[in-house]
Amino acid sequence: MDFSLNEMQAMLVDSIEKFVANDYDFETRQTYAGSEQGFSPEVWKTFAELGWTAIPFSEEDGGIGGTPLDLMVVMQQFGRGLVVEPYLANIILAGGVLRRAASDEQKESWLQPIIAGERQAALAFVEPQSRYDIADVALTATADGDHWVLNGKKGVVLNGGNADLLVVSARTAGDQTDAGGITLFAVAADADGITRKSYPTVDGHQAAEIEFKDVKVDGDALLGEIGQGLTVLDAVMGDAVLAVCAEAVGIMQVMTEKTIEYTKDRVQFGVPISSFQALQHRMVDMFTDCELSYSLLLWATMLASEGDEKADRAISSIKYQIGEIGRKVGQEAVQLHGGMGVSWELDIAHYFKRLTAIDQMFGNADWHLDKLAC
Amino acid sequence: MDVTFSDKDIEFREEVRAFFRDKLPQDIAAKQIRGEPLEKDDFIRFQKLLFEHGWGGYNWPVEFGGTGWSAVQKYIFETEMAAANAPGIIAFGLKMVGPVIYTFGNDEQKQRFLPDILEGNVWWCQGYSEPGSGSDLASLRTRAELVGDHYIVNGTKSWTTLGQYADWIFILARTNTDVARRQEGISFLLADMSTPGITVTPVITIEGEHEVNEVHFEDVKVPAENLVGEEGKGWTYGKVLLQHERTNLAGVGRSKHRLRNLQAQTGRAVRGARPLAEDHSFMRKVAAVAVELKALEYTELRTLAAVAAGNAPGPESSILKFRGTEVEQAIDTLFLEAAGYYALPYVPEQFTLEFPEEDRVGEGPEARSSLQYFNNRKASIYGGSNEIQKNIVAKHVLGL
C-alpha cells in the first residue's frame, strides 16, 4: 500500500506547477479563453514539446506509454491552473478513440499530428436529443460503394470549431438507441457538407453544433469495426470521467485554499471573517470533501488502471461524488467570498463555472447514481 | 502508487480471518447477527480468547505485552473482526487508559495495571465528562485534594459508558485551582470502583437501555500512588488519549460490514411483496452512502500508508472521526427506513436469550433498527462532538 507519487508523476506535477506559476496566471488564462480560438496555440505547442500531449499513447504510437495515474496528476494540475487548452478534446476524447480503434495508417495520418500538437481534433458523440446516452445515435452513415455518406447532427462538440479532425459516432444499423450498430469515423472537418457553428461555453472553453449533410467519406475513414463503436466509446467515456474528475479535484482544492486565504484577509466588524465559527465549520467541510474526493479518485483511477471488474462502478462513484460534492464546494467558495465570489473579475467565479460544467458532462451526478443504484 | 495490501499483509489477513472463523464462540456471533445486546461476560470471554492467542494487546507495542502490529495490520484486524460478527474491543482499557499508563505511568503502575487489561481481568471506565462539562471539558469541577498520602475526590462524572460493569475508573480531576490556564491543574487519577464514597447511578438513554451512568465521588480516598505522571499534567495526557480514541473512530470496517448486511437485506423479499432492491429511491440512498464510505475507507488507508512509511498521519486523519460517525448514522437511518412498519415495535425484552423465538415481533435486524438508530445518535456527540472536531480541524489544520 503506497499512495505516494512516483518519480515521473512528481516530475509532471512539478513542471505543470512551474508552467502555471510562470506563464499562466489568471489574467493570461482569461486572454487565451477570450481569444478567437479560445486557447493559446503557442501554449498548446509547448504542451506538445514538453511531452504532455503524448502521455496516454503507447511508444509504438509515438507516445510515452503513461498510465491513468500519470494522466490523473496532469489533469489535477490543469484543474489547479484552470487551464483552458483543449487537452480533454484532443488527447482524452479524440485521441482516446484513435489509440484504441485506428489502424496504423490512420494513426500516422491523424494521431501523430495530434500528439505533435500540429492538428486539432474533437470527438462528436453528443446529439441534441441524446443527453447522456451515448448509444442514442440518430446520425446515420450509409454505405455507398467504397464510400460512406453521413447525415445528421452532433451537439456541444468540445473543441469542434477548432478541430481539423472530427471523430464521429454514426449509426450504421439498428434503431436510434440500440447498443449495436454504432460505427466510428474519422472525418476531415473541412469535408463538403459539414456546417459548424462554434461558440464559447460558460467555463471559458469552446464547443460547436455540427451538421452533416450528405458528407461523403472514403472507406478508410472507418475507425475500428463496423457496428462495434460503442465498446470503444464506453472505454473513452471512462477515461474522460477520470480526467475531468481529476481536474475537478484540483479545482476544488484551489477553491478551498483560496477561500481560506480570503477569509483570513477579509475584515468585517473589525475582525477577519475567518474568526467566525459559522464560516470555519463550512471551510472544514470543504477541506474534508476535497480529501475524501481525492481518496475516491485514487481508488477509481487505480481500479481503472488494473482493468478491475469493478472499474465501471468506481468510475460512476467518482463522477457522482464530484458532481455532488463539487457543486457543494463550489457554491460554498462563492458564498464565502461574498460579492467578490460573483464577480467576473475574480478567478473564483471561473473555477466555479468549470466545476459546474464538469458535472454536466459524461453523465451528471444523478445519472451515475442511478447506475450505482441498479 | 499501489492500493493493494502486500503479500505479507494478505497472509496476515487470512490468519486473522481463520482465527475468527475457528475460534469466535458461536453464541456470541449469533447474538451479534440477531441483534441481541452483548453482556459483560461476552466481551470478557472475547478478550480472554484474544489474549490466549497472543493478540490481547492488538494495538499495543511489544514491550508492554502487545502485538506490535503495524497500522495496516491493526486496520486489517479491526476490519476482519467486524466482518466476523465479533464484539468490538472494550475500548476503555485497551485503547484509552492502557496507552496513557504505558506512555506516562511509572513502572509500578505498568506492572500493576497493564497485564489485567490484556487478560480481560479488569474492566475500566472513563471519568471525563461532567454534568456541567461536556465539550468544554477544561471547565470540569471534580476536585482531588492531596491530604497525606491520599487524594480526596469529590464531584460527579457523567455519561460513563458501561460504568456499571467497571472495576476501575480513570478520571480527570482538578488538583489545583490557582492556575493561569484552566487546562493546568488537572490531574489524571486511577480509582478502584469499590472505594467507599463512589456510587453509580444509571442513566437510561433514548432507546430505553442502560448503557451510561453517572458516577458520584463523595470524599473518596484515592491513594497518591494512583496519580499517573505528574500532578497538573492530566489535560495533556487526556488529550493524547482522545487523539488515540479519535483515530479509531472512523469505524470503516464495521460500517462496511453493516452496509453489506443492508445490501443483502434489500435483496430479500419484504413480507411477500417485492424486494426493497426494486425501490429505486431507496437504492439511490444506499448507493450514495456506499460511495461516501469508499471515500472514507481510502482516506483511512492513506493515513495508514503514511504512518507505515514513517510519516506522521496527515491532516486527512483528523477528519475521520466526524465523517466516520456521519456515515455510521447514515447507515443506521437506512436500516430504519428498510424496516418500514417493523421499526415501530418496542419490545426490548425480546432481545434476551430466554425470550421464546416464536413470540418475537419482527426479525432481528429490522426489530432492532430503530433502537440502534436512536442509540447511535451518540456517535456524533461522544469523543468530542463533531462540532468540536471541526473546531480542531479549523484551528490546527486550516489555521483559522
Decide which structural class fits the backbone of chain B: alpha+beta
Count of the domains of chain A: 3
Helix/strand order of chain B, N-terminal first: HHHHHHEEEEEEEEHHHHHH
What fraction of residues of chain A sit in β-strands?
A: 15-25%
Q: Which fold name corresponds to the CATH topology of the largest domain in chain A?
A: Butyryl-CoA Dehydrogenase, subunit A, domain 3
CATH top level of the largest domain in chain B is Mainly Alpha
Classified by CATH, the class of the largest domain in chain A is Mainly Alpha
The largest chain-to-chain contact, stated as pair and per-chain residue counts, equals: A-B, 38 and 44 residues
| Percent helix of chain A | 40-55%
Search tags:
heterodimer; A: 374 residues; alpha+beta; Butyryl-Coa Dehydrogenase, subunit A, domain 1; Butyryl-CoA Dehydrogenase, subunit A, domain 2; Butyryl-CoA Dehydrogenase, subunit A, domain 3; four-stranded mixed β-sheet; 11 helices; globular; B: 400 residues; four-stranded antiparallel β-sheet; 12 helices; 8 strands
